[in-house]
Q: What sequence folds into this?
């Protein structure tokens, strides 16, 4: 079964959703091909690095509201083994991070890179809007950091990614994570592993009956 995961690397629920999805796959007997699809929660530029909490405070009415908002997601993240450190997180535009993910995908390493980008942003306080930092994350998972930096400094993959982001909007993806199973069935949100497993099983049965 082909599975497209639409997500953004600065989306905490996407990281939680991926972790829960991995747990569901561990209990699923069928064969899957997972593709990582780009989505930007906020495509606007980030001129200089700023703490994510400051950005959230501006959007949602102050530091106290921002801290209350993230407390819940930090708690849920911890329940699946994720360390979400909003005291460190740096706001970033993720266009280059998605480009780099596509580049890693050519080497069948996109899954590892996506996981590393989430950790870099949410746990380690890395500015993943920085090309130098992105090349460092690539190197940390065993990819060639110099090649990664050369790729990011070129225009390669820009048109392709722009088209992919537009395609996601045309498909109707408005929130992430969104899991599209077998090209036809969408599951949105960071669902529990049991819910995802049930969806996988149901889609497998539907697809078998259709053929």
A:
């Amino acid at each position: 079964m082909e599975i497209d995961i639409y997500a953004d690397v600065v989306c905490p629920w996407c990281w939680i959703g991926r972790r829960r999805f991995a747990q569901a796959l561990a209990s699923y007997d069928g064969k899957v091909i997972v593709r990582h699809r780009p989505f930007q929660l906020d495509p606007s530029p980030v001129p200089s690095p700023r703490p994510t909490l400051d950005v959230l405070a501006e959007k949602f009415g102050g530091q106290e509201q921002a801290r209350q908002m993230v407390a819940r997601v930090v708690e849920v993240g911890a329940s699946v083994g994720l360390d979400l450190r909003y005291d460190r997180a740096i706001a970033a535009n993720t266009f280059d991070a998605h480009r780099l993910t596509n580049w890693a995908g050519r080497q069948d390493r996109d899954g590892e890179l996506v996981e590393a980008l989430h950790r870099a942003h949410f746990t380690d306080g890395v500015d993943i809007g920085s090309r130098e930092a992105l090349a460092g994350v690539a190197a940390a998972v065993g990819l060639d950091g110099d090649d990664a930096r050369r790729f990011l400094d070129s225009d390669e993959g820009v048109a392709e990614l722009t088209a992919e982001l537009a395609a996601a909007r045309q498909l109707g993806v408005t929130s992430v994570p969104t899991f599209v199973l077998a090209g036809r069935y969408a599951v949105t949100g960071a669902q529990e592993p049991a819910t995802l497993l049930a969806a996988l099983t149901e889609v497998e049965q539907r697809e078998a009956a259709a053929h």
Remarks:
- The first helix runs from residue 12 to 26.
- The chain has a mean pLDDT of 96.
- The CA atoms of residues 7 and 177 lie 5 Å apart.
